[in-house]
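Fold sample X.
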Amino acid sequence: MKYTGMAPGMWALFAHSFRKQLTEVFAYDPAAAKRITRKAHGEYRKIIAGIPEFEKGDRFKMNIVSCAMLTAFVLSMDTRPDVRRLTDYYRQAMMIPPMKLFCRLSAASKFTEKDVNGMRKTAAFRAADRNPYSWNMEFLPYSDDSGYEVRFSNCGICTLMKQYGLFDLVSAMCSLDYTMSEAGGASIFRRQHTLAAGGPYCDCGYVKKVK
């Protein structure tokens, strides 16, 4: 993947927050946080360069770029973090005001005909058949019209973090699904299985909130 467009844009948007949370969550002093961030930027560029280009129409490019960013910071830290603290770090680093706004705007169209059609199209696309850093999913509407479930049989985050010896930390990223759903305000997020925990798939259930 070329370091153009989304990749530098994501770095510009989130790097300050990722650096700040090195101090807030891991207690690095500001000088160390700056040094780690500088090293992480180099790692990030290398990771991005090793990811194949995503096809036009693949809606998961942002997910893998976010994973590349977290992976770069973990590889640059002085001490390998445990999954609990990394979960807190990633959540706080990602949930900056523009991200909260993105969640609310996305929630405004949740469960609409456009949203459902987009999910069906993504399920049929099966991007991971051609790119192991992308995702394959099934779309399963609930029979009572209370929402829907998405089941992932292939996960680009698992592929990338396993490549860098960080597979045990994948759940730190998975937990953001709950946070984003809550920030959006349109759905209650439910999950029973993850590939990272040895499950048969990753399930993402979205139940309509009763207004």
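Fold sample Y, listed below.
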Amino acid sequence: MSTKIAITGKSGSGKTTITKAFLNVLKTNFPDKSILLFDNDLTGELGHSFGMDIRNTIYGIRSGKHEYKTGIPEGMSKHEFVEWAIEDILVSIDDNVDIIVSWFVGAKDCRCPITAQINYACQKLIERYDFVIFDCEFDLKYLNQLVETNIDLALIVANPTLESVKLAKRIAEFSVKHADGGQLGVVVNKVKNENLSSVYSTMKDSELDILGAIPFDETLADGTSDWNSQIVQEAVKEFYFRLNLPQENS
């Protein structure tokens, strides 16, 4: 059974950097485990952070605009075709890590068969991996429109401002019903030492579950990095023990 981590929050909050930090921590702690990166953010930054311009998406399957790597096999049922197409758009990052990009998703109340077929195919794909990290759009609602799956950890990324804290509370309210009883909490990103105490005070007043804080990384400030940060990775290692995730390789 796979362990699922959903990284949510406002665009620009640092979700992609934190997603990559979680990937690196999991690869270090569980070197033999398989990991799927599921880019559910409309910006598509996760693929770009690996130097990839991933054009083949789940939306492309839905819209019929996907360009397949090979000819479409004959004699498949609709379900078989969607499962085959999902496999076709997977991109390998290394021996144990793959990435898939959703882009636009259909409305949850859409009754067209392709909606249910994609949901089923995505569920099957997800369960094949030991870990799945979802880089989400704003909250869990958008992910749930695409695939219904239990989430072990939903992490809301917030910046150390009152406005961001208020937004994190809204995201938590929108996401809680889609978290399936999994752990739901906030990580405060881009924290400078001088405002750490005030951030925690603000978070406490908002009744949000604070799972960790990540220091501000100057190397990320100019936007020219590859979304890799040793500072962010070390911070994730420090608060990892608080998370509803496997703690030891087995």
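Sample Y note: The chain is about 35% helix and 20% strand.
Also: The CA atoms of residues 160 and 198 lie 9 Å apart.
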